[in-house]
Each structure stands twice: as C-alpha cells, then as structure tokens.
Amino acid sequence: MCDKTFVTNAELKSPIRTHTGENPFDCDICDSRFSNKRNANNHMRIHTREKPHSCEVCGKTFVQKSNAIMHMRRTHTDIKHPCKIWAKAFATNFAVKSQMRTHTEDKFVSCKVCGKAFSHQINVTTHMRTHTGERPHSCEVCGKTFTQKTHAIVHMQRIHTGEKPYSCKVCGKEFATNDAVKLHMRTHTGDKPFSCEVCGKAFAIKNNVTKHMRTHTGDKPFSCEVCGKAFASKSNVTKHMRTHTGEKPYSCEVCGKAFALKNNATTHMRTHTGEKPFSCEICGKAFTQKTDATVHMRIHTGNKPYFCKVCGKAFTQKTDATVHMRTHTGEKPYFCKVCGKAFTKQTASMVHMRTHTGEKPYSCKVCGKAFAQQIHVTRHMQTHTAEK
To answer: If we measure between CA atoms, which residue out of 362, 363, 366 comes closest to residue 385?
Structure first.
C-alpha cells in the first residue's frame, strides 16, 4: 500500500486502516466512527467539553497534549531560534532548519511519480496524495476527509466549534489558527516574501507563487469532469462547474439577484450603493471594478499588452484579442436559440434575440421612442438636434 515502516505490529494496525477505510471505534453519542481509539477519545471531548491538558504558566486548557506543548513554545518560551537570513525567530531548532531550506533551496527528496523535489519527506508524503487521492485525516464531527491533519483541525475550529483563539494585534480581527494571523498581518505590513523566479512578481502567500507560475508554464492540472476544460487552479474548476449546474450561491441583499461568483455579487451591490472605489490616477475617473480602472489607464499610457498571434494587431483588453482571433478562425461560438444563427460575440447574440422577442430597452429622452440598440438611439437623437 505504501512504503512507511513501523517498529511493532501494533503500530502498523492504525495506518493500515487509512488504506482499507476501516473505522472500528465509534462514538456512543453521535455514531461518528474512527480508525483508532485515540481519535475516538479526542472526539468524545467535544461532547464532554473536557480539556485535560493545561498550560503550566497561564493555565489555559486544551483538548490535546500536543496543543498545550505548542502553546507553551509559542507563547511563554523565551528561547527563540533565529533564522540567519530572515529577521525572524522560531520556537524550535527544527523549525529554523525547515525555514532555512526555503532560502537555500535544499531539496533532498523527490516524488516517485512526477519527480517534484521537496525539502522534507513529510512534504513528499502529503504531495503523493495529489496522485493517489488519499485523504487520511477526517473531521471527528461530520466525517469530511482531508489530505493534511492541519486542514482537518482548522475545519473543526471554523465549522463546528466556531473557535477563533488568535487575533490580529493591529485591527483585532480573529482567526482560527496562528498561521492565518501571520498571513493576515502582511495586509498591514505589505510584506511579500515570495517572488516569481521568472518575472520577479512578489506575493504574500507561497501558494500564490505556485499558481502564478502557471501563467508562465501554461500548466493547467485541474479539469472539469463534465466538459474536460482545463484550469490552472482548483478554485477555477469549482467556479466553472456552476456553468453546468446553474448554481448561484451568492445573492444581492437588496434586489435578490443571484450570482455564481461572490465577486460579481459584490460588484453588483455597487449599482445600488453607487460606490466607485477605484479611480484613475491621472484624470480621476471612478470605477466600480479595479479591472475597469486598469483598462481605462491604457487610454492614457497607450499600452496594448494583448496581441493577435496571426496578424500582430494589438489590443488593450484580452477579450478584444480573443474576439478578433475569430476573424481569422471563423469561429462563432454563440448561437441563437430560436433560429440557430451564429455569432462571434455574445453581445451580438443578445442583440439579435431582440428581433425575436421585440424587446427595445433603449429609449429617446426627448420623444420616448424605443430602440433595440443604444447606437440606434444615438443616431435617432440627431433628428432632434437637426430640427433646432
């Protein structure tokens, strides 16, 4: 099953169950099941609220002994082990050595499947689960499984207990883990310790560097189970799936309109509030979305970063370059559901639909005459200005 070794046969039994899925220990109260007795005992403390392990200094109590030990090291121990490169200290010498490898890039072990190298064996073990699909750590309450134990612990705190014992010293925001506080602090300090080896762009979170690198490599390791479309991140697959399921989990609190993406719901709310938080640094024009402000800036700079691979024509927006490419390929991906006519742009398809529905959403402010397109209103207005 795996190459992990154990000293005694008794020690082997529990890990074997992560492969077989056997859970012989059950909770008498909620019927949750576990692969070993220790996890069952820890789970019972959720019901009894027992916290038998306490800090010798401040008396704070914990469900597990390991949590009490870690609390002691982080909070009360004066002995700190400094990193020679960063101005940062750690509770244990092992933690310093682990951190140093992120600077020296010493990677002693590699994945037998894809060859990716790591500084620690435990990182290889965790990485292997991306190939095997193994999720050996489960939530003691709902049974949800995870690839890493820390993820299961954080899940427990956020979803079931609601406990957020760590808070930001600057703004007071509370978090379930100390690591989350450290990441949050970078929003105050502006610290971005991780950078792209190709273009030098800096990031506050290491995982974001990995995702960013895919913009250079073109790697898209995640795919849709329905249509097979590939994506650079798992979160994008989740969002894309909603185009198939029709799920729209985010809704406007004012008008009730539903959205597939949280960001779209936030942007939509600005149509009610009138908020335009993003402004042009040159002319001061305000926008509801940051992307609109970025695109607008190109009017001033003349920057056209997107090029047609066929004729070399440059564009300020990626979508314009994509639509232009269809003049070369002849692709018309948007179809009228009534007559089947095909279009290169979705907007053209929507305008065409009005020939079937009779909808005329644009009207003249002078005489009230209605039109299917805004450009027709503009042309019509000239008949009024000519009269004067």
So the answer is: 366
Which pLDDT tens digit goes with each residue over 301-314?
Answer: 999 999 999 999 99
Which of these, 341, 364, 362, 344, lies nearest to 353 by C-alpha position? Answer: 341
Return the H-helix or E-strand segment holding 383. helix 374-387
Q: How many domains does the chain have?
A: 2
Residue 158 lies in a domain: no
DSSP H stretches of helix in 21-92: 37-48, 65-71
The residues with which 145 forms a beta bridge, in sequence order, are: 138
Residue 135: strand, helix, or coil: coil
Q: Are 17 and 11 in contact (CB under 8 A)?
A: no
Three-state DSSP at 20 gives: helix
User: DSSP letter at 76?
Assistant: I
Mean pLDDT of the region 75-96: 59
| pLDDT tens column, 312-351 | 999 998 889 999 999 999 999 899 989 999 999 888 999 9
In a domain, 151, yes or no: no
Is residue 134 situated within a structural domain? Answer: no
**Cα gap 255→21, rounded to integer Å:** 47
